[in-house]
């Protein structure tokens, strides 16, 4: 049986709700609109994986290193030890995303950056904003087959995607080729936002997987899994 990369932490049961962790060799796609919680989920997964001695490369289009560290600590995910001992490699690509000329060969550059892919788990948040200028069917197929090759070596690849940044054809290529496909829904409910993790597909889970997991994000607490989820 494939090794399971657990991301359990004592204060929430996200890991239990998601089958006990991601099987080695999984391609995970987390899709959601702007402000839907993709980065928070990615940060929570990253911290939980590190807590379970799983090494992570976190590529972010969203934050500088300092911004990431501040954000993690604001949710009480103390990551400094993991950054120092090498269990976590954080790579901000904001300058690349902002420099127009580098956008067009980004897929090639990503595939050539070998040191990004040495860890057990690679999180790219948000992949769609990195490739939206350069992606076509052929390049996207190349990228997916590159990720699949890494999956074949036991790596877990977690990609977050904002669907409106890609054509429907390209977005559906990621959906159909992944092993775990999650969409994040959020709807205003009074003065709060009701957030839900919808698990559309989860291949090779060790334990039972919840189809809909309600969650909220709280300062100093991070991600909180709601006990009862009433839609």
UniProtKB/TrEMBL annotation:
Transmembrane segments: 79-100
One Gene Ontology term of the molecular function aspect: ATP binding
Protein keywords: ATP-binding, Cell projection, Cilium, Flagellum, Membrane, Nucleotide-binding, Transmembrane, Transmembrane helix
Signal as UniProt keyword: no
SUPFAM superfamilies reported for this sequence: P-loop containing nucleoside triphosphate hydrolases
InterPro entries: AAA+_ATPase, KaiC-like_dom, P-loop_NTPase
Protein name, UniProt field: Putative ATPase involved in flagella biogenesis
């Amino acid at each position: 049986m494939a090794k399971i990369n657990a991301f359990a932490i004592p204060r929430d049961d996200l890991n239990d709700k998601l089958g006990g962790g991601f099987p080695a060799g999984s391609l995970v796609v987390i899709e959601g609109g702007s402000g839907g919680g993709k980065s928070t989920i990615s940060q929570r997964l990253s911290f939980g994986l590190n807590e379970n001695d799983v090494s992570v490369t976190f590529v972010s289009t969203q934050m500088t290193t300092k911004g990431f560290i501040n954000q993690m600590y604001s949710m009480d995910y103390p990551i400094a030890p993991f950054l120092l001992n090498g269990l976590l490699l954080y790579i901000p690509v904001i300058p690349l995303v902002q420099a127009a000329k580098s956008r067009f060969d980004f897929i090639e550059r990503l595939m050539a950056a070998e040191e990004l892919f040495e860890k057990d788990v690679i999180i790219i948040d948000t992949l769609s904003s990195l490739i939206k200028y350069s992606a076509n069917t052929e390049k996207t197929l190349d990228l997916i087959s590159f990720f699949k090759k890494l999956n074949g070596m036991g790596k877990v690849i977690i990609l977050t995607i904002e669907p409106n940044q890609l054509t429907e054809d390209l977005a559906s290529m990621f959906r159909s080729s992944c092993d775990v496909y999650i969409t994040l829904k959020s709807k205003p409910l009074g003065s709060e936002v009701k957030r839900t993790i919808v698990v559309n597909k989860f291949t090779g889970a060790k334990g039972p997987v919840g189809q809909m997991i309600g969650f909220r994000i709280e300062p100093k607490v991070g991600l909180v899994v709601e006990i009862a989820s009433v839609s």
